[in-house]
Amino acid sequence: MSFTRQILVFIAIWALLIYIFITKLNATGGENESEDMQKLNQAISMLERSKSIDNDLKRLLDDYNNDAASNDAKADLLKQIHLKFQDNFETQDSLQDSSQQNQRTGIPSLEYELLRRRIGTNILEYWNYMSSEAEKLQKLLSNEVESHQSQKILTDFVQLSREHKRSLLNDFDQMTKNDGYENYRHTEAKALSDLVQKRLYYLQNPTDCATAKKLVCKINKGCGWGCQLHHMVYCFIMAYATERTLILKSKGWRYHKGGFEEIFQPVSKTCLDERGASMGAWPANENVQVLTVPIIDSLNPRPSFLPLAIPADLAPRLTKLHGDPIAWWIGQFVKFLLKPQPETQEMLDNGRKKLGFKKPIVGVHIRRTDKVGTEASFHSLDEYMRSVDEYYNQLEMVQYVEKRRVFLASDDPKVIDEARKNYPHYDVIGDPEIAKIAAVSTRYTDSSLNGIMLDIDLLSKSDFLVCTFSSQVCRVAYEIMQTVYPDAYNRFKSLDDIYYYGGQNSHNVISVLDHKPSTHDQIQVKTGDLIGIAGNHWNGFSKGKNLRTNQNGLFPSFKVNDKVEVANFPKYSHVDEM
């Protein structure tokens, strides 16, 4: 793709961002309409200015594309293009500042919350695309004989764009904090969590264990701690959906022979006995008292309430509150399951103090010894640290950071030493001894379990998480993070996969904008198309299958919204009224 076409693409994307901000201003209406109209007129005025700048840019590009132009003339034109981009950036900053003033009180509309999060996500998707394409341009220009001036202008442009992205995201965060709905988000997050925890407590504590319907779950699945925990969560979801008390069979557990209940509090105070008058395997008759289920991958038939589905009765409130409803839903089951025994809590508290864990801090999880080369690709320390650097660069635009801190968890002790050597300006917090016992050969021991529990605890309590979502440890930390903050859907950077739940039902997205392929590896998309997503390439494009055309390929990530799957779980209305 030529330099000219790249610049035109940038112009189009900036215009789209402006359109999104204006749409947000118009879509949140209701109260204070006259004030909103005044702000909208101001935004339209700024948009007209931006369009004028775009026209000037197109004229400059036509001149630049003139083969008759000399190298000196082209260098001068590139400088003018750079200045025009800077002018356009400042115009958009003014537009964002005006949108920040539109504050409300009370409870936001669903449309406002969805659009607010979409703007934040699309700023990041835009940056993913632009930075990826700019790197390609830099490589092309580096091969030109007379490219020194062009390279300098492009480097300045990329740097300015990077700062502008940070400014936009900080403005977006400030808009969220000052839009009048912050109290609602904290209150609603607590209320929804309390509601689900109340239902789970009721389910797990029947008045008569001898006659209660039960679901038995053997936790000793042949995999690591994160995988075993997700197996327990799957069993718990099945129990919730069938209104059965979950019974964990954990004696002889490979991590701790005494069982799960010696490390964490029992999941029931009244019913730990798996016996019953009748037993059956899924899908047994609903009248069978004791039900057993296989691992999620072998479940047949597969019910609609498996992940990624959330309960229909909670969906209206949850989709308004949270940017990743399924991660929040999974996090609620993890929260109920992982209630430490006093000794376990003491271990976690002592570990936190010993390591000197304090904020601000970024949690980094690097998996090395297993799955790399088979289920996951190798990623260097520098790749992780680039995302850490970007987090702190953005944070330092709005607050003073005395010391950049990283909590680094890994199954390779050499990574912690490497980080301390190569990044001396960071306070790298980590325990190489924990990393040693996290290796496959020593994984199933009490020490290893303590280490992985401490790692997950500190990763989930970090301000931001950098990891690979191909790792179950990383996904568990992200799920728990949803119980720490009202909405932590965007407090992560995954170097590979998008969030998923092992054994999940299909993950679909819905197109909100048409897309005409510009390369052979892209697919055509029409508004309203359902696309089965296979992953995000974090360069502005995602991969998936258009279920209307059966085409497989790439499509722009910002042109789709996640489809929230909803299933009819029991409503537990009698519990809510208690």
Descriptive notes:
- Helices cover 50% and strands 12% of the residues.
- The protein is α/β, with parallel strands linked by helices and 578 residues long.
- It has 4 domains: 3-180, Four Helix Bundle (Hemerythrin (Met), subunit A) (Up-down Bundle), CATH 1.20.120; 186-305, no CATH class; 338-494, 3-Layer(aba) Sandwich (Rossmann fold); 508-567, SH3 type barrels.
- Helix 7 crosses helix 15 (472-484).
- The chain starts with a helix and ends with a helix.
- The model is unreliable at 24-37 and 98-104 (pLDDT under 50).
- Residues 211-495 form the GT23 domain.
- Disulfide bonds join 209-271, 217-235, 223-227, 467-474.
Write the layout of secondary structure elements.
Elements: H1 3-27, H2 33-64, H3 71-100, H4 110-141, H5 148-177, H6 182-204, E1 214-218, H7 225-242, E2 245-249, E3 279-281, E4 290-292, E5 309-311, H8 315-321, H9 325-337, H10 342-355, E6 362-366, H11 381-395, E7 404-410, H12 413-422, E8 426-429, H13 432-437, H14 446-460, E9 464-467, H15 472-484, E10 492-494, E11 508-511, E12 530-536, E13 541-546, E14 552-556, E15 560-562, E16 565-567, H16 573-576
Parallel strand pairs: 1-2, 1-4, 3-4, 5-16, 6-7, 6-9, 7-8, 9-10
Antiparallel strand pairs: 11-12, 11-15, 12-13, 13-14
Helix pairs in contact: 1-2, 1-3, 1-4, 2-3, 3-5, 4-5, 4-8, 7-9, 7-15, 9-15, 10-14, 14-15
GO molecular function: glycoprotein 6-alpha-L-fucosyltransferase activity
GO biological process, one term: protein N-linked glycosylation
Protein name: Alpha-(1,6)-fucosyltransferase
